[in-house]
Structure to design on (404 residues):
């Protein structure tokens, strides 16, 4: 099976995504209970997102309750509660910003991405999260491998808003430091995003032995440029900076992903208290950053500082060994001294960069323009580092560890 060059956009390949193409395989693939029939252009035969059990034939035979699928689908549709979002044709409409169907997504700004499950050949599961699964898929018309993010729709406004926020960010963000977006579609209880496949996956898989300073500087440079792009070009704050949301491909490129908890900046303040607690800045934990119940972009700068230490040292900075529960850990973040890079392993410039990110007072932390002018990142910008070679070696070590 031919493979694409990671990071290559579909337009560079000379293709457009067209759901009407018919050169699909005749075999079926199963995604969370969906039996997608290839080559027919037909949709799924049962509810997407439900954990269906699989019999010896490999076909889905029952749903979460143990009842046959046919019995489940005869019951009341869970989308009775989605009447505000479903249009008469059964498409999912998000507050006039986007309409998602089984054949693609149309945004209110005129951009359209036509792609469907019938064009996909599912290869394996890449990861699982709170709201869904990420699959590696092969898009047959373009011969491109993609990451297919399956999001199970939850019956609440917040989850739906997170979906449209991420779609809105992904389709607008055109940056070498943000994962590419190829399209989205909707099948019953799931929304699917098609994104650039970063084949060496997330940073947390690549750092167990720690990362040399020259590599660490290049990673930090890419992340800061990605965060600055979101802020300056899109008025967006990421709000969930951590190693699992920083991806690497075989070319050594480093890109940000996961914008489900991102939010537009309102006079530099973001009001919603979301994100991963372990990477929260002190002001986010106590809820007084930048004003009542808000925080500024400097909260992401704190998360960046923790991420740099974790990736560099090969471990999370606030070691769990001294804590009996999460509250002890959060108390250490709020009231304890911030962690630092060890001076015997890293340059004074690198240590100073991280120390600036981890100032307890958010107002004393640098903004992205300041970080990009810091001597450590200026040196990283000007110094050649073979990121492709590092990525290959780090990924090979990851594969070797997982074979044991």
């Amino acid at each position: 099976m031919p493979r694409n060059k990671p990071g290559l956009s579909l337009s560079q390949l000379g293709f457009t995504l067209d759901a009407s193409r018919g050169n699909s395989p005749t075999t079926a693939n199963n995604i969370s209970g969906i039996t997608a029939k290839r080559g027919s252009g037909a949709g799924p035969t049962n509810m997407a997102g439900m954990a269906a059990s699989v019999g010896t034939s490999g076909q889905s035979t029952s749903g979460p309750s143990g009842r046959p699928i046919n019995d489940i689908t005869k019951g009341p549709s869970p989308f009775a509660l989605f009447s505000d979002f479903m249009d008469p044709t059964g498409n999912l409409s998000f507050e006039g910003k986007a309409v998602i169907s089984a054949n693609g997504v149309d945004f209110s700004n005129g951009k359209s991405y036509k792609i469907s499950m019938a064009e996909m050949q599912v290869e394996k599961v890449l990861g699982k999260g709170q709201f869904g699964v990420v699959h590696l898929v092969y898009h047959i018309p373009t011969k491109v491998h993609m990451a297919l993010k399956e999001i199970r729709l939850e019956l609440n406004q917040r989850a739906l808003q997170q979906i449209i926020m991420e779609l809105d960010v992904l389709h607008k963000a055109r940056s070498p430091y943000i994962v590419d977006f190829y399209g989205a579609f909707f099948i019953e209880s799931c929304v699917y995003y098609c994104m650039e496949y970063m084949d060496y996956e997330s940073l947390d898989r690549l750092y167990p032995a720690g990362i040399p300073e020259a590599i660490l500087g290049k990673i930090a440079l890419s992340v800061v440029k990605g965060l600055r792009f979101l802020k300056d070009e899109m008025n967006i704050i990421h709000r969930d900076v951590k190693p699992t949301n920083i991806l690497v491909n075989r070319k050594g490129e480093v890109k940000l992903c996961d914008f489900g908890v991102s939010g537009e900046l309102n006079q530099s303040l973001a009001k919603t208290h979301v994100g991963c607690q372990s990477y929260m800045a002190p002001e986010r934990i106590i809820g007084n950053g930048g004003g009542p119940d808000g925080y500024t972009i400097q909260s992401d700068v704190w998360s960046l500082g923790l991420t740099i230490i974790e990736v560099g040292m090969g471990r999370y900075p606030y070691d769990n060994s001294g804590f009996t529960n999460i509250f002890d850990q959060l108390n250490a973040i709020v009231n304890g001294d911030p962690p630092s890079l060890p001076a015997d392993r890293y340059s004074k410039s690198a240590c100073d960069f991280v120390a600036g990110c981890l100032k307890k007072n958010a107002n004393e932390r640098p903004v992205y323009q300041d970080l990009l002018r810091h001597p450590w990142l200026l040196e990283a910008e000007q110094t050649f580092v073979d990121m492709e070679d590092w990525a290959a070696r780090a990924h090979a070590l990851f594969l070797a560890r997982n074979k044991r």
